[in-house]
């Protein structure tokens, strides 16, 4: 009995550590602001960089972690080559990775290593079942670990899709503000390329930086700004950027038509964003109502149970 309790405690501790590793707690606003201030003070206080061979002792990672990182990167590269040899394009995954700033190699390595880590628990679960006296068969522990491995295999996809959806929503919001800025610059007498570049230099944030880099690359490579915006929309799977590129390609010669088109497009994007927010608010209100109904039903059952048992006993 003591051995079974100890084995159960060890398994529970391992599951708890695994869940904490997969779902780390999010720091609060105060903790993030404190970390940002500490990073700024450290950057201001650190001495100038030395020769290329000199390193910072406090920031050097351990050799074991470096070897793990090298093996993970090598596994990711091999998996990426395997996908390319099979002809798997993975367009949606690449678009989600591009907007979240991750690499395909790291994503593929994570999808393989997480299920492999779940399968390593087969001997531990089998030993736990044996201590409980449930038999020495490994079929049930294997199926349990296979189920967890399947969940862990699809977990990176779900996490990536949710993060990409949130970042696309932020990007659409930035595109709406960008269209208003371009329309105001066009009203001031600037041309379309100058208006696009000036509007991109106004705002900050990762989305505006991506638009600014795309326009700067278009100037370097000799492409039109709307072609570069369309390519960015294809890379990040942002339909609003693709539509904007098509609209600018059609009416780029007429400044008045461009201004009217951009203003109408920005207004429609704001209206759609407002309707989506209202829809999400309605869904949350309905979910809260359902939760309240379940709570009331449970309370009524709690009140009626003693009387019902007394009636049945008599």
From TrEMBL:
Region annotated Disordered, chain positions: 44-64
InterPro entries: T2SS_GspF_dom
Main location: membrane
Keywords: Cell membrane, Membrane, Transmembrane, Transmembrane helix
Cellular compartments annotated: Cell membrane
Spans traversing the lipid bilayer: 6-23, 112-132, 138-155, 289-308
Pfam families reported for this sequence: T2SSF (PF00482)
Any one GO CC term of the record: plasma membrane
Bilayer topology term: Multi-pass membrane protein
Residue ranges constituting the Type II secretion system protein GspF domain according to the UniProt record: 178-303
Superkingdom of the source species: Bacteria
Protein name as annotated: Flp pilus assembly protein TadB
Organism whose genome encodes this protein: Actinomadura hallensis
């Amino acid at each position: 009995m003591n051995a079974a309790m100890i084995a159960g405690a060890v398994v529970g501790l391992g599951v708890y550590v695994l869940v904490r590793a997969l779902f780390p707690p999010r720091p609060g606003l105060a903790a993030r602001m404190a970390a940002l201030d500490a990073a700024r003070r450290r950057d201001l206080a650190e001495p100038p960089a030395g020769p290329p061979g000199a390193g910072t002792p406090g920031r050097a990672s351990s050799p074991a972690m470096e070897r793990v990182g090298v093996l993970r990167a090598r596994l990711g590269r091999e998996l990426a080559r395997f996908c390319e040899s099979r002809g798997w394009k993975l367009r949606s995954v690449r678009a989600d990775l591009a907007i979240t700033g991750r690499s395909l190699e790291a994503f593929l390595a994570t999808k393989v290593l997480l299920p492999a880590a779940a399968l390593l628990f087969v001997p531990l679960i089998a030993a736990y079942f044996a201590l409980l006296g449930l038999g020495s068969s490994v079929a049930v522990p294997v199926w349990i670990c296979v189920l967890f491995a399947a969940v862990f295999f699809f977990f990176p996809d779900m996490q990536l899709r949710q993060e990409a959806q949130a970042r696309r929503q932020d990007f659409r919001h930035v595109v709406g503000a960008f269209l208003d800025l371009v329309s105001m610059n066009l009203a001031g007498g600037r041309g379309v390329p100058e208006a696009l570049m000036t509007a991109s230099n106004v705002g900050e944030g990762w989305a505006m930086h991506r638009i600014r880099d795309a326009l700067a690359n278009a100037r370097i490579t000799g492409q039109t700004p709307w072609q570069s915006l369309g390519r960015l929309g294809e890379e990040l799977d942002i339909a609003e950027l693709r539509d904007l590129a098509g609209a600018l390609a059609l009416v780029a010669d007429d400044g008045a038509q461009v201004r009217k088109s951009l203003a109408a497009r920005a207004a429609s994007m704001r209206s759609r964003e407002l309707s989506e927010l209202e829809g999400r608010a309605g869904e949350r209100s309905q979910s809260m109502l359902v939760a309240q109904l379940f709570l009331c039903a449970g309370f009524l059952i709690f009140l009626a149970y003693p009387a019902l048992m007394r009636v049945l006993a008599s």
